[in-house]
Amino acid sequence: xxxxxxxxxxxxxxxxxxxxxxxxxxxxxxxxxxxxxxxxxxxxxxxxxxxxxxxxxxxxxxxxxxxxxxxxxxxxxxxxxxxxxxxxxxxxxxxxxxxxxxxxxxxxxxxxxxxxxxxxxxxxxxxxxxxxxxxxxxxxxxxxxxxxxxxxxxxxxxxxxxxxxxxx
Length: 168
Prior knowledge:
It contains 8 helices and 4 strands, in the order ββαβαααβαααα.
């Protein structure tokens, strides 16, 4: 039997967000995984979202979660309220709170985090501090998520290539 390829996600070609090509392959139990831009925003607002909860949201709501800005403290509060409201609406449960890291490693432009340097060395790759600094916040966030222990790392080398880090 031939395996059918899932249709493109609602985020592919969506203007106003950073969505990576490698995310099109993020599938778990036939559910498309939460995009990095939304995962970043969840970390920034202190809310954990389970894939089972995400999968219940309407595509327009998922798009809104990707598009909503997080520039001001009020933006972050609005985002948190919107997300917790969706979780409650679809699951009748309260959202799971996360501690918010005031200085996450992806935000530090002076040092490439050790976990990333170790993953790069494992793959015989290198990254300069200049390359690290030229990545977007979402790209740095994604690389750190993809190289964590226990995370499926098959997309790490694909992300490295997509972000143009294989060039000499």
